[in-house]
Amino acid sequence: MRFIASMFFIVPFTLILAACAPVQPPQPAPLNEEQLAILQQQMLELQRTQNDTKNKLDDSQAAIKSLSAKVRVLEERQAAMSRSRIETRPTTSVQGKPDKTSTPTSKKKTAKKKKKIRRQE
Asked: Does any domain span residue 110?
């Protein structure tokens, strides 16, 4: 009976200790010179690719900034032109006729000549 009682206490306790113990991963084999040289070459290629990509990204961003500035200038120019068109239009009164104060009075009316029509007999 004592044997059975001690089994119920000792076995679970040892299992808990075994589960909590740190597990060390197996150590990788040391690299030889050839493998080191290959890994260095790969790393250098990746760095070159990264630098090329960064340069292309910088060029693209500069192009986007310059194009955005050009678009902004064109939009401002268009807005200024539309404002000037609105300012130069004659104002109309409530009845829909142009106000006489806003139209220039220096315009001369051209007299129309009547054309003589000859009748054929």
From this structure: no
Counting Cα atoms < 13 Å in the Cβ hemisphere of 101 gives 3
Tokens of 77: 């120019």
pLDDT, one tens digit per residue, over 50-74 is: 999 999 999 999 999 999 999 999 9
With contact defined as beta carbons under 8 Å apart, do 85 and 78 qualify?
A: no
Query: Exposed/middle/buried for 28, CB within 10 Å: 0-12, 13-18, 19+?
Result: exposed
- Which conformational region is residue 68 in: left (phi greater than 0), alpha (psi within -120 to 50 degrees), or beta? alpha
Cα–Cα distance list, 5 to 10, 12, 15, 17 (Å) = 9, 12, 16, 19
Q: Decide if 97 is inside a domain.
A: no
User: Six-digit token pair at 45?
Assistant: 């290629």
